[in-house]
Amino acid sequence: MDLQGLVAIWVGKVTILASRLLGKGGSTFPGRVARRIDPDLLRKLAHLPKQGNVMVSGTNGKTTTARMISSILEAAGLKVVHNRAGANLLVGITAAFLAKASWWGSLEADLGLVEVDEATVPAAARELAPRLAVVTNFFRDQLDRYGELEHTFSFIREGLELLPAEGNAILNADDPLVASLVEFSPAQVTFYGLEDASLASQEEETRDVRFCRHCGERLDYGQTYYAHLGWYRCPGCGFRRPDLDYAVRQTIRGSRGSRLEILTPRGELEAEISVPGVYNIYNALAAVATTMSLGISREVVAKGLQAFVTSFGRMEHLLIRNREVFLALVKNPTGFNAVIKTLLEGEERKNVLIAINDKYADGTDISWLWDVDFERLATAEERVNFILTSGIRAEDMAVRLKYAGFPVEKLAMQNDLGSALEEGLTRAGEGGTLYILPTYTALLEIREVINKLGYGRRFWQE
Amino acid sequence: MSDLKISVCHLYPDLMNLYGDRGNIIAFTRRCQWHGIETKIQSVTLNQVVDFAEFDFIFMGGGQDREQQAICYDFQQVKGTSLAEAVEAGVALLGICGAYQLLGRYYKTGEGEELPGLQILDVWTEAGDRRMIGNIVEESDLFPGRAKTLVGFENHSGRTFLGPKVRPLGRVLVGYGNNGEDGTEGAAYRHAIGTYLHGSALPKNPWLTDLLIAWSLERRYGAVTLSELDDEIEERAHQAAQRRAQETWGKIKAGVK
Ligand SMILES: [Zn+2]
Predict the structure, then answer these.
(1) CATH number of domain containing B147
(2) CB–CB of A403 and B237 under 8 A?
(3) Contact between chains at B236 and A370 (C-beta distance less than 8 A)
(4) Separation of B113 CA from ligand 1 center, angstroms?
(5) B65-88 tens-digit pLDDT
(6) What is the set of active-site residues of B?
(7) ipTM for this prediction
(8) Nearest alpha carbon to residue A305 among A344, A335, A264, A265
(9) Total structural domains in chain B?
């Protein structure tokens, strides 16, 4: 490490300590400070892990996939540098490396495991020089930041083009746009996908229609597993779902997880995952394909997956003043719909606080709220005591619920998150349960409020 | 007021469904329901031949470029003439963003190629290299009595210009509007409106929804006075959106992210 890099590390690490002492959990700020001193710092730190770096991208499932990979790597006894959920821009990634670096500029890590925001992929690929890249899927997501799906596609394409020839690209074959990336990868491509008809979606979901990238024809779907993920074929040019290297062949599903039978290039693998939902089967499969491509044995992969535990869905569970509080980040229609489904499970009546911000990290366009299936919540209205809307866009959220058919009498607006939390806890009552569904920056604010009240963990300790 | 019916056509719901534009259909049908008007929605997509004059209200949301090309062809070959006739006959229409551009005379690409539009609105669009993204507030003269504000979120790089046969939907108070230059946003001709407003456009602008409902009734029932609704939540959201637009624009101008 040269002097400029060392100074950047020192200042960055002092900033980490200082923000901890001040009780601020700002996780990316140290990265920003350090990069200002040495713009090449990440580049310098990123070539220290002995086995190189792994980059996880795509619109949905990055965090869970990366955490599953991390759990497997841990089971394999590897030391990993891993950026936290949400901290997936360059400053956040730099901060993660900074936190693991020593004061004299060494890094005790075997592998860097980095979740990367789509728009950051080209820059991250240049600075991290990853040996392996995973692409999970392309859902329409956070559209105002990137314009269109095509832009997201070209960001990720640019990142893949930077992979070394001896590297690996792990692609979700069931997503036609992800599968179309194959021709841009100089690295060896590995496809994963589902081949279990019992997982096929029975619901007539409003599937996002997809067109062939090669000839523009509308794709025909044999079956879909989740939204637009499935078996497809182009009637125009014959482009179709590629053959799979890693395939889920059979699944036994339970309410709290699934048992998977996965066909791999090195034989059958049986694995259990403790999270429900088809999207988590995709996440697990991506993690299996990634870690086996890194050379980890089937036995260790199965063990690592089993060790992966998360609270139900991605909900965090806290106890505040004798009220059970569930916190779940909402950031796009697909994710929000999943949270609503989970929320409505169980017979007890629900108390709900939804906090919508429209800052840059949330997505400044809140139109996506109209694509969320709040009608489902309105239909089950007799099982909901109240919905409190909060955040910068509390009023928009209230309008959305009113037009979904949710009774106006059970709606209240409170822009200030602290007051909303207070009101929510009071109305939930002693022994009651409060579900809090915030967008990204609203989640950070709420955690800060909860920390100040003296409940919950400080959130850099996750 | 009873037995009023509105037949709604949702054009290309499977293709033009960006940015929550289906919120417009939700808002339109909900308000009809609250006004005591029955609605019937029919989805119409590629290759379907329909007589658009049989509808009272036609809605089309924004789409992505790739999908817009497929629609462009279908529009011209299959639906164009009938749709133009319907608009001339006074059928109400709302087209958002990409749909707005398609309703115009042409779209000129970055390479200078002119892709013909439907020529229903006397507007044309030129590809631009800057993306116009952000909250927008405009003032519209379309309403009987007095001017009203409209709020939304715009996200487009195409720059649209108005010909003499249309009037602007509104004058931009905060935001970019049609082209970022002349202070106009959207276009109106007879009972057809094209606009860049996402948000969705209708829920937070209930007077625009009601105007479209009144227009939709006019051909069959003449001028109908709609019942008063309690719009407290909508109006608060409208005010909040105006404040937010001013705040975010202040920030954009000051160069702070
Ligand atoms: Zn094709």
Answers:
(1) 3.40.50.880
(2) no
(3) no
(4) 24
(5) 656 677 778 887 888 889 999 999
(6) 97, 198
(7) 0.95
(8) A264
(9) 1
